[in-house]
Amino acid sequence: MTQQLILYPLLLQLLLAILLMFFWKKINTQRIISMLGSLVHLAVSIGVFAYIWNNGTQTVQAGSWEAPFGITFIADTFAITMVLLTSIAGLAVSIFSSGSVIGDRLRFGYFPIFHFLLLGLTGAFLTGDIFNLYVWFEIIIISSFVLITIGGEKAQLEGAVKYFTLNFLASMIFLTAIAVLYGLTGSLNMADLANKVAAVENRALVEITAILFLIGFGIKSAVFPLYFWLPASYHTPPSAVSAIFGGLLTKVGVYALIRVFTLIFVGDAFLDQILLVLAIFTLFSGALGALVQNNIRKVFSYLIICHIGYMIIGLGMFTEVAIAGAIFYLVHDILVKTNLFMISGLIYRIKGSNSMRALGGFYANYPKLSLLMFIPLFSLVGIPPLSGFWPKISLITASFETGSYWSLAAIIFASFITLVVIAKLWAEVFWKDAQEIPVKPKFRYYHKIKNIKRIQIVVPIVFLSMVTLYVGFGAEHIQTLATRISSELMNNQQYIDAVLNTQISE
Amino acid sequence: MSTLILRTASNYLLPVLLVFSIFILLRGHYLPGGGFVGGLIAAIAFVLHAFANGLDNTKGLLRFHPGFLMPVGLALAFFSGMAPVLVDQSFMTGLWFPQPFPVIGNVGSALFFDIGVYLVVIGVTLTIIFTISESA
Fold first, then answer.
1. A249-301 pLDDT tens trace
2. Of B74, B75, B90, the CB nearest to A62
3. Which InterPro entries would you find in this protein's record (chain A) (predicted)?
4. Would you give the distance in Å from CA A216 to the centre of its chain?
5. What is the pLDDT of residues A408-445, one digit of tens each?
């Protein structure tokens, strides 16, 4: 049974989703199952992570079909780290949803769909088959479409249409790219593709396929010219939904980009150049977008775009140090972005508004909560020793080494603008005197809800802040992890060997 | 829609279509068919019945909400995939009974997976159609 170990996080999420569907009408039971299940999932993920850390890459051939023909599941350090981060963010958002999402939304199957979304994410990280990756992306997109529309407010539906149209387009392009790749090589297994693509004579066609993948994943991860759906939709659903979207959905696109461009399309100077240019524009445009917004959640949405640039720039420079920086940033970003959207939800619960101009006086009225919110906000900026600071060292070192001074300029510019944006937010929301906000009669304000709900809203923020603090103060550990991942990614032969040279147990 | 001809015919067609859907489900392992198509045919049987006799009568016939079939089917599919893990094989490996059964032939874990799909498809289709016709 230990041979199937890496599938357990996946199967557990599926089991949870099915179990939750049996309790369709019983919201309170669903709350408890979701929270306990997420806790168990975190424990399982930690266990599997420890196993992979000690024993190296593991594979499972689903249905015992041998490697290039069947569907392979593979957990290298990168994949299992992402699974672990998914379960951390999943646990936090599960608790947060239980406290903050109103019952009318939960009644439409919020929790089962939420766990189907986590299932899709876990599957996308663990699969070693490019068509299977597409299937997991479909599960993610369908679940996320349900989550974004649950409740059916006008603004929500408007955002959802934009979200769905562009993501669906991305899926079509991704599928086309797979079809072309299959036509070129006759294989769908990623390790097998790595060998076969390198041997294809028609390099121009390979490059075009790579560009198709880049566009498909680029829309999903919101890189420069393709990000417009993100700020148009992420501020509309309940903040618990935005939290899981902001934390993980764009990152699965980044994961796919990193995976495909370190395994299948490797060492093409032209593609790396494109990635660099896109990343630089992403950093600039995301930062400038965040500067002019007034709605807190829109500010965070643009910051997501901006910081996607850091990961893509690391991939574009394509040195071991740069990719280590990108991975470290990915770890930090998932935790912080999830937390920030939960914080925007907490602010909304307290004041009934997310407009920076209307808010104020948080520090005077809620000093403890303000100090709590200080941690993720300034981790995002990267004030040393908080977590956002460390990956930038690697990225800046790498841009000196590769001599790409434009990247250096973009990294520093984006950090600076992030600082300005967060400082502005801090001054407006926390330091400015409290403003008069019209009281909504039916709104469930923070001071009106039960104690248990308040705990469910605050505890996940505390939990993620603690993890962020660990990433900041225990940066050495995360750096070790990131370096190991990047050396695995740069020497992709071990991945290929792990998939193609496994013996199937009879 | 409730003409005498349709009403009479649907009473005979319901069991015929259900049996046919099970036939399609069973032949699907090697031939065209399987859980998905079978499930659709079974759903059509109930939809036709609802057209002829009204939604309430069909609901009375079903006795439970069709949405309940979704988790049941998913659970069945899940456990058929998990069964090989218990005997130390890879997830979703096909396990087969050594002897063929009369009438249905060889039975393996793939059949239970297909039955799961069959139930999920009936559940989803009927839930969608019932919801739409209720609000229409």
1. 999 999 999 999 999 988 788 888 999 999 999 999 999 999 999 999 999 99
2. B90
3. CPA3_Na-H_Antiporter_D (IPR050586), NADH_UbQ_OxRdtase (IPR003918), ND/Mrp_TM (IPR001750)
4. 16
5. 999 999 999 999 999 999 998 888 888 788 888 878 88
3-class SS at A129?
A: strand
Question: Structure tokens of B54?
Answer: 């009204």
Domain range summary for chain B, segments of one domain joined by +: 4-135
- Residue A127 near residue A6, CB atoms below 8 Å: no
Cross-chain residue pair A7–B71, CB shorter than 8 Å: no
- Please give, rounded to a whole number of angstroms, the shortest distance from the CA of B93 to a CA of chain A: 4
Residue A423: its H or E element: helix A405-425
Distance between CA A380 and CA A370 in Å, rounded?
15
Mean of pLDDT values over A304-332:
93
For chain B, helix (H) and strand (E) counts, in that order, are 5, 0
> How sure is the predictor about B136, in pLDDT bands with cuts at 50, 70 and 90?
low
**Which residue do the tokens 């914080």 mark?**
A343
Distance between CA atoms of residues B31 and A388, nearest Å? 57
Q: CA of B25, closest CA in chain A: separation in Å?
A: 21
Are B71 and A15 within 8 A, CB to CB? no
Buried b (16+ CB within 10 A) or exposed e, A11-39: bbbbbbbbbbbbbbeebeebbebbbebbe
Spatial CA neighbour of A300 closest among A324, A249, A336: A336
| pTM over 0.90, yes/no | yes
pLDDT in tens, A139-172: 999 999 999 998 878 888 988 999 999 999 999 9
Residue ranges of alpha helices (H) inside A222-295 are 229-233, 239-244, 250-263, 269-292
